[in-house]
Amino acid sequence: MMASTQLPSDENPYLLGTHDEEIERLEFQHTAWSEKTTSLWNKAGLGPGKTLLDLGCGPGFSTLELAKRVQSHGKVLAVDASKRYLSYLQAHLKSQGLQNVSVHESTVEDLKLTKNSVDGIFARWLFCFLKDPKSLIEKMVDFLAPGGVMVIMDYYHYDGITFGPRSPA
Questions:
Q1: Which one is predicted more confidently, 128 or 139?
Q2: Is there a contact between 53 and 77 (Cβ–Cβ < 8 Å)?
Q3: Confidence band (pLDDT; 50, 70, 90) for 93?
Q4: What is the C-alpha separation between 79 and 89, in angstroms, rounded?
Q5: pTM for the whole thing?
């Protein structure tokens, strides 16, 4: 039976929660989008030796793949606000022997990094949940080294939403 959904709070910032069933759903979703994600990473040049930021990493399915992709001489910074998700990620990093990932508990808005400190930023299904995605993108640009790239996968652009048929509601 699926756990009930609770409204986001400081303790649980996720609309859909962080329970086991949600982790399973996110893993399925990650797998379903794996080919498209890998294609984007290839086009963006996210590969060996790079320092990457996995922004809003959740339970870390992409983080694990990025860590293998950048190899031992690269680095991945995994950032999320959920202690539960980060604990899940840390357990998988340990079980897979991956030592090139640093895990940071932070909201994406409060994240502090050195200017020009990353070669690439990856964010998937994050910006559609933010109140001010434009401000976050502007902030992230400062973290990118010259020639750095930002790969964003998201559901939609809020300004492009329309409802039909039109109604007073």
A1: 139
A2: yes
A3: very high
A4: 11
A5: 0.83
Strand partners, 104: 79
Contacts of 135 (CB under 8 A, 6+ apart): 109
Q: Find the length of the chain.
A: 169
Q: Which residue(s) pair with 75 in the sheet?
A: 51
SS3 16: coil
Contact 67, 137 (CB under 8 A): no
Residue 15 one-letter amino acid:
L
Average pLDDT over residues 117-143: 92
What is the distance in angstroms between the CA of the first residue and the CA of the last residue of the chain? 33
**CA proximity to 79, closest of 148, 33, 25, 140:** 140
| Whether 54 contacts 122, CB under 8 Å | yes
CA–CA gap between residue 72 and residue 69 (Å, rounded): 9
Write the CB contacts of 144 (distance below 8 Å, at least 6 apart in sequence): 116, 118, 119, 120, 121, 150
Q: What's the rounded mean pLDDT across residues 12-17?
A: 68
Confidence of residue 30 (pLDDT cuts 50, 70, 90): confident
Element spanning 17, H or E:
none
Structure tokens of 133? 């995605």
